[in-house]
Amino acid sequence: MKKILWQCVERIIGYANENNTKTLYLTGTEIRLMIYFLDPKFYIIKGNLPNSNSISTLLSQNLAAFHNFLLQKGFYMLIGSGMFLRVDSILNLKSRAMKVKQLSKDDEKKLNSTNLWISACLRCCLFLLDLNSGGSNLQTFTEQHYSEKNKLIMFIIHIMSVPCLLSSLDDNWLDMLKKSNIPLKIIEIMHNDDSLSQILNGLTGNNAIFLMGNIVELMLRSDLISLSISETQSNSSTQQFLNFIEIINSLLQYCQSLVSSKQLNMHYQYHPIFKWYSGKNDSKIPNSYFNLVIAQLECLWQRSFILKAFNHVLSFKSVVKDQSGLLKSRRKNSFNDKKVSLVSRKVTIDAIETKVVCRLYLSILKLLDGQNKNITMNLTYFPDLIPCLWKFLMRLGPKGNMEIFLSDSVIKDPEKEPFISILALFCICCNIWLTTKDDEELYDKQIPFSIENDIIPMSVFFNKFCFALLSHSSLEGCPPTIFESARKVLFQLHLKDSRRSFSREENIWLLIKDPKKSLPKSLKDLFKNKKSSSSSNSKDQMGMSFLERIQENDPISIKILNLLPHTIPFETRLDIFRDYLKKSIPNYSEATGIMIKVRRAHVLDDGYKQLGGVIDAKIKGRIRVKFINETGALEDGVDQGGPFKEFITQLIAEAFDPSYGLFAVTKNSLLYPNHQNTTTKIALYSFLGKMIARAIQEGILVDVQFARFFLSKMTGRAVFLEDLIGLDDELLKNIMIVKKYEGNIEDLGLYFAIDEEVNGKVISKDIMGGSRVTDDNKIQYSYYLADYKLNQQAKEQTRAFINGFQSMIPENWLRMFSPPELQHVLSGEDADWEVSDLRKYTVYHGGYFDQHISIRHFWSILEDMNLKDKSAFLKFVTSCSKPPLGGFRYLQPPFTIQMISDDSDSNQPRSRLVVRSLLSSIGHSKSALKGRLPMSSTCFNLLKLPSYSQKSVIKEKLKYAINSNTGFELA
Fold first, then answer.
1. Are both 177 and 312 inside the same structural domain?
2. pLDDT tens-digit profile of 574-607?
3. Taking the mean position of all CA atoms in its chain, how far away is CA 133?
4. Are 731 and 720 within 8 A, CB to CB?
5. pLDDT tens, 904-963?
6. Is residue 771 part of a domain?
7. What CATH number is associated with residue 723?
8. What is the pairing mode between strands 594-599 and 275-277?
9. Do residues 439 and 500 make contact, with C-beta atoms less than 8 angstroms apart?
10. Where are the active-site residues found (predicted)?
11. Global pTM?
12. DSSP 790
């Protein structure tokens, strides 16, 4: 009989006949026979018959023998393989039904027959688990061979891991599982560490992800993770929910152990969900199944599930607002002691539950990379979740106020802190949340965060937390996992403060206030536990200043400089940056340098043709330039740096002129890559990035003002909603309307789409599938619109420019500066400047000296100029209207004043390059036109000043010259 039963099993799981591999076995004598002999009900004797007990025992033994025989032969594994084929058939038929709207009669019959086959086989599987219905004798006999635990483990491994099984089961089959108490049994057995270990040992990565999908759908449809929230829900249901979450998290972590973000020796297979995968990959599984399992898991990040998962946080009442006051008066009032104790106990219990939930989402985000955006957006914009999480975090620990996360034990090893997962998830979501907060919400209404009570304490905490983590990180390894997500929040807060200050004082950001002095004790403590690269001088290092540590290449100090630059004064970072640049320029000889010939009327074209294909190492080296004049002849002279400055200045001026089409401008005339320029080679943007970087390396200030969002990208930072100001005010206005719309947003008939002009035509481009905008997703809609405009629209052009820029200046050096600071590095300071500073570093030629009467008149006139005229003067002599950062000691070459005759320069040495003054102009006084005007050679930062006898003449001619439109020509 056992052999017959096994033959029935082998028969029913395959095809209708051996010669037909297209038609599955769906019904027949074999399946009816198997049901008959495995159903415990057929082994129960009804009525009072002689020797009924003996007969009943014999029958039970026979049934148990059948069960044990089938289990030994691999019954569940074989039925699972048969179910895989039938589920595949059902899903194909359902997919066809969606396309044709109605199946043919043959397909309908096939679908019903396949459903009946799965129903029959599922019954047989449950017969082997349903011990109680067979009587106590059956249970006792069977447990001697296969315990209920072992059978359930086999059921989970082979049946519950069938891809998308639950998606193909109707409610009738689900009732069968519920009657057998399968959902609760699965939670109970998988929450046991030993049982879970056995299950995981029997699974591949694919099995685990499909098991996860089926369990999630089973629990959801069985109401064991009911999405309705009840104030009176029992502790047992809460515990079942938490156990379920821990089971899913264990499966996620098991899958993660088989996954890598990069292709490695062990991880050589590409997986539709996991990316690079080291587990067993079943080629029989269609890729469409992986989309279906994601659909099964999606309920974990839907609003209803989030509501249940974070219910205790969302309903957390700030009963501890006066906690500090209670603590102060504990000695005076024993009632307060009890109140504080109850509050702390409630917070601790809630924190343990929150920790489990946060770990689940962190595991999902880590494994399901393709779903990150949807998951984080749903969490971030769930009403009140972010502010409630922050207030909840502020209550953790004996003292609250985030001090639990600043303790030595947490800083040294954050992963050991039980509640670090709560902070980690908050950081991920808060980073996104901050990007879409506009000034009205953050500064004016201060909803939901108060500047004084939330934003400033948050800034202070993350500043200290990130600094402490980095200071305690290993010398060569990476900082702890949470560091990067915490740093992103910190940078968002710092950038918002730098754009519109909320801190009211700089002290909350600067932690190393004087880098030239020995570190204060509070900072020494952060460094004292770190092993020096040379143990012999570790004592000496304790007395070193931060700047000295940088010069000694202390790895921790360098990490702080690169990753937390705002904690160090800007002037110090600028000095370090200049030192880096100086050391990075290769020392090429004349023979190894590059020589290019450039036509004055075609500087960009000629420069790109000759330098566009040159390797980066040579671009960093010496570039000698020879200009070709209008007649086609090479200009005389030896390039000692001046012509290169002129070349790069003119090239940048030409390329970044909006009329050229490579760059567009905001309404404030700030530049950013033009997304409509589809004809220009992307490589040209890369070349221009290199030229801007080369100008920085040479200390050449360029008169180019970039849009803030573009500067943010150049420094590797995120962009804000406010960056749309001036870029697309109409879009920003519409986003604000949507965000603050109080009615039913669906009445506006909006979809996830954006209009843009392409080749003179306005087209609508879908974003995120073009779905309808609802009240639930209107914040996501706002985010996606801003993201498209700021990040996606000119993505290729921006990436090319930044890649070129960073190929010359590494990104970690650029991270030293905020976007406004980088603009200062590029084009100098906006503030007024001291004439005395310029005078201090001026060089004189041709007979001039500092106390020469004409020179004294010149400096006196310059002192009396307003900022506008002083800027025009700088533009006249250096080609940039702003002074170099840090003062004129950094102007290269130094500002030089050369004496020339006031009527003729025939007796003067010939300069290779001078500025041609206007020979005539309407509206200027005759005295201005009488005699020679001052001239300049911007490539040498040279002013050619005639030796005028009167101060009034110097003043008039100088003002006339600096406000004239001049051109370049040979003397």
1. no
2. 988 988 888 887 765 555 678 999 998 899 999 9
3. 56
4. no
5. 443 333 333 334 343 333 344 444 445 688 998 888 899 999 998 899 999 999 999 998
6. yes
7. 3.90.1750.10
8. unpaired
9. yes
10. 939 (glycyl thioester intermediate)
11. 0.78
12. I
- Tokens coding 320: 């501890």
Q: Are residues 115 and 91 in the same domain?
A: yes
Q: Helices 795-808 and 682-698: crossing angle, nearest 10°?
A: 40
The count of structural domains within the chain is 4
List residues bridging with 753 in a β-sheet: 766
945's enclosing H/E stretch is strand 942-946
Which residue from 426, 256, 300 is spatially nearest to 355, judged by alpha carbons?
426
Name the 3-class secondary structure at 533. coil
Beta carbons of 484 and 453 less than 8 angstroms apart: no
Q: Encoding tokens for residue 136?
A: 């106590």
The alpha carbon of 674 is separated from its chain's Cα centroid by a whole number of angstroms, namely 24
Taking the C-alpha atoms of residue 404 and residue 55, their distance in angstroms, rounded to an integer, is 69
What mean pLDDT, rounded, does the chain reach?
A: 83
Tokens describing residue 115: 């459903």
CA-CA distance, 202 to 506, in Å (whole number)? 58
Instruction: Tell me: pLDDT of 58 over 70.
Output: no
Q: What pLDDT was estimated at residue 531? A: 47
The CA-CA-CA angle for residues 285, 289, 293, to 5°, reads 130
Whole-number Å distance between alpha carbons of 173 and 529: 62
DSSP secondary structure letter of residue 534: S
Asked whether residue 566 is assigned to any structural domain, the reply reads no
Same-domain pairing of 798 and 902 = no
Q: Across residues 515-533, what is the average pLDDT?
A: 57
* pLDDT of 848 higher than 50: yes
Region of residue 904 (phi > 0: left; psi between -120 and 50: alpha; otherwise: beta)? beta
- Tell me if 276 sits within 8 A of 259, measured CB to CB: yes
Residue 400 lies in a domain: yes
Scanning 39-104, the segments in alpha helix (DSSP H) are 52-73, 75-100
State the Cα–Cα distance between residues 417 and 424, nearest whole angstrom: 11
Instruction: From residue 180, give the alpha-carbon distance in Å to each of 126, 132, 177, 199.
Output: 7, 10, 5, 20
Distance between CA atoms of residues 322 and 340, nearest Å: 10
> Is there a contact between 472 and 529 (Cβ–Cβ < 8 Å)?
yes
Last residue of a domain, one of 509, 526, 552: 509
Q: pLDDT tens for residues 311-321?
A: 989 987 544 44
**DSSP-derived 3-state class of residue 265:** coil
Q: What is the 3-state secondary structure (H, E, C) of 348-389?
A: HHHHHHHHHHHHHHHHHHHHCHHHHHHHHHHHHCCCCHHHHH
What gap in Å lies between CA 154 and CA 79, rounded to an integer?
A: 11
Residues 377 and 415 reside in one and the same domain:
yes
Q: Are residues 900 and 814 in the same domain?
A: no
Q: Are residues 431 and 453 in the same domain?
A: yes
- Model pLDDT, residue 198: 94
What does the alpha-carbon distance between residue 159 and residue 199 come to, in Å, rounded to a whole number? 12
Neighbours of 479 (CB within 10 A): 19
Q: Identify the band that residue 348 occupies on the pLDDT scale cut at 50, 70 and 90.
A: confident
* Parent domain of 322: 308-509
Q: What are phi and psi of 568, to 5 degrees?
A: -120, 140
> Is residue 569 in a domain?
no
Q: Are residues 811 and 840 in the same domain?
A: no
- In angstroms, the CA 359 to CA 735 distance is 33
Integer Cα distance of 961 and 971 in angstroms: 17
Residues 428/432/435/440 CA torsion (nearest 10 deg):
-100
CB atoms within 10 A of CB 524: 13
Write the DSSP string, 820-874. Answer: HHHHHHHH--SS---HHHHHHT-EEETT--TT-HHHHHHHHHHHH--HHHHHHHH
Number of Cα atoms under 13 Å in the Cβ half of residue 847: 11
C-alpha to C-alpha distance for 720 and 710, rounded to whole angstroms: 11
Listed residues 509, 526, 555: the one ending a domain: 509
Would you name the residues annotated as active-site residues? Answer: 939
Same domain assignment for residues 164 and 76: yes
